[in-house]
Design goal:
Homodimer. Interacts with FtsZ. This is Cell division protein ZapA. It is found in: Cytoplasm. This protein is of the alpha+beta class and 86 residues long. It has one domain (3-85). 64% of the residues lie in helices and 16% in strands. It has helices at residues 26-46, 52-85; strands at 7-13, 16-22. A two-stranded antiparallel sheet has the order 1-2. α1 crosses α2. The radius of gyration is 17 Å and the shape is flat.
C-alpha cells in the first residue's frame, strides 16, 4: 500500500501525543485511541502507583483478553449458525 493511501492522525493517549499512520479512517483511529486512553485511566485510577510502562502493559493485557473472549464468542455463534443451516 502506498503512503498516499495512508492517513496520519495525531491522537492523545494518557497525556502523550502520538502520530498514527495507517489505512483506517482518522475517525476510527481517534476512536481506538480514545478507548485506549479511557482504559489506561480506568486502570490507573484503581492502581495509582503504576508507572506508565506497567500501565500500558496492563492495558494491552486487558485489550487482548477482551479480544480473545469476543473471538471465542464469535466462533461459538458461527458454530451455532452452521448447525442451524445444516
Amino acid at each position: 500500500m502506498s503512503d498516499a493511501q495512508k492517513t496520519r492522525t495525531t491522537v492523545d493517549i494518557y497525556g502523550q501525543q502520538y502520530i498514527i499512520v495507517g489505512t483506517e479512517s482518522s475517525s476510527h483511529v481517534r476512536l481506538v485511541a480514545s478507548m485506549v486512553d479511557e482504559k489506561m485511566r480506568e486502570i490507573s485510577s484503581k492502581n495509582p502507583s503504576l508507572d506508565t510502562s506497567k500501565l500500558a502493559v496492563l492495558t494491552a493485557v486487558n485489550a487482548v483478553n477482551d479480544y480473545l473472549k469476543l473471538k471465542d464468542q464469535l466462533e461459538k455463534l458461527e458454530g451455532e449458525l452452521k448447525r442451524v443451516k445444516d
